[in-house]
């Protein structure tokens, strides 16, 4: 199911974890991995002078410069390239998010792998994933796997998947991806709902009643879709959703968290990554995959 992996990278240290996971997946699952790097944003339309995405400096893009960038990427990821039979580098210029989406469509990628941030930027340090990830996750027609914390990249393949649901329409696509991955790779699957009580003071009896309702809803919504798949369990409890998802993933030694990319906005073209997904990406000790559209699940 991961025949074609697109690793979108700047080559900066912030992207090393994502690269480690992408190459590891390619080797484990005999996938083709494309290391995709946007050199810079043209200063003018069709200009050969670009603002380098890493330094912000103006550089002239010619064959010599592209060859140098390619060699830099090969050197940066030299260890990962070892044993990666189906790896290639693709370079281009343009706005990073647009070019990543264009390449994913052109290559018919099954999965885009990215770091949570390209490096040093204000929004990253305020606790939000970078704008490029936001835009790609919103519009990609395949799932987008994100790696932020360094510990999230020291990973040994998929064996235990956590699917977090808020019962939204978008969660249906995320569940299909989680189930198909668990089925194909013979993984355990945990279906989890956190009853959101953040900022609320609720009677404990009311909480218990809502937990019963949520558990019943999981059984009615998702269990009938699993057919003969039996390697699953259901967990429901109260708390702040992103905190509880990260806690449960840690307790169960989960190696992939699967979430819908957004929740409240029904139009995926208008919605940004939901706040729960943002915080899980930044805090989880394993890769997090967000699913926006049902095309490649």
Tell me what you see in this structure.
The chain has helices spanning 16-28, 63-76, 78-81, 96-107, 122-125, 131-139, 169-185, 204-221, 241-251, 275-283; strands at residues 4-8, 32-38, 40-42, 49-52, 58-60, 87-92, 111-115, 144-147, 160-164, 188-196, 232-239, 256-260, 288-291. The chain is built from ten helices and 13 strands. It is an alpha/beta fold and 297 residues long. The chain folds into two domains: 4-153, HUPs (Rossmann fold), CATH 3.40.50.620; 160-289, Rossmann fold (3-Layer(aba) Sandwich), CATH 3.40.50. Helix 4 (96-107) packs parallel to helix 6 and helix 9 packs parallel to helix 10.
Overall number of domains: 2
The coarse overall form would be elongated
CATH topology of the largest domain: Rossmann fold
Uncertain parts? 121-128, 265-272
Specify Rg, calculated over alpha carbons: 20 Å
- Order the strands across the largest sheet as they lie in space: 6-2-1-7-8-13-12-9-10-11
CATH architecture of the largest domain: 3-Layer(aba) Sandwich
Q: SS-based structural class?
A: alpha/beta
**Terminal CA distance:** 9 Å
Q: Which sequence of SSEs, written as H and E, runs from N to C?
A: EHEEEEHHEHEHHEEHEHEHEHE
Give the count of helical stretches. Answer: 10
**Largest sheet entry:** 10 strands, mixed
Strand percentage lies at: 15-25%
């Amino acid at each position: 199911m991961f025949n074609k992996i697109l690793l979108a990278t700047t080559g900066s240290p912030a992207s090393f974890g994502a690269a480690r996971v992408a190459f590891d997946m390619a080797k484990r699952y005999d996938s083709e991995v494309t290391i995709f790097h946007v050199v810079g944003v043209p200063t003018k339309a069709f200009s050969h002078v670009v603002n380098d995405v890493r330094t912000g400096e103006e550089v002239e893009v010619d064959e010599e410069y592209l060859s140098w960038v390619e060699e830099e990427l090969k050197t940066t990821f030299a260890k990962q390239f070892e044993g990666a039979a189906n790896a290639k580098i693709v370079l281009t210029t343009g706005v990073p998010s647009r070019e990543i989406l264009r390449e994913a469509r052109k290559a018919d990628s099954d999965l885009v792998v990215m770091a949570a941030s390209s490096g040093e930027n204000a929004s990253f340090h305020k606790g939000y994933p970078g704008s490029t990830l936001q835009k790609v996750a919103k519009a990609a027609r395949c799932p987008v796997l994100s790696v932020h914390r360094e510990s999230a990249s020291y990973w040994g393949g998929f064996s235990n998947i956590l699917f977090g649901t808020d019962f939204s329409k978008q969660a249906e696509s995320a569940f299909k991806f989680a189930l198909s991955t668990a089925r194909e790779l013979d993984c355990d699957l945990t279906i989890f709902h956190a009853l959101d009580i953040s900022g609320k003071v609720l009677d404990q009896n009311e909480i218990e009643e809502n937990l019963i309702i949520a558990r019943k809803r999981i059984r009615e919504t998702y269990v009938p879709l699993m057919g003969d798949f039996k390697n699953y369990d259901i967990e429901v409890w109260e708390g702040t959703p992103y905190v509880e998802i990260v806690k449960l993933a840690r307790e169960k030694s989960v190696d992939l968290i699967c979430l819908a990319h957004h929740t409240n906005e029904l139009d995926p073209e208008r919605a940004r990554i939901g706040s729960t997904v943002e915080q899980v990406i930044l805090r989880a000790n394993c890769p997090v995959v967000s699913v926006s559209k049902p095309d490649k699940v």
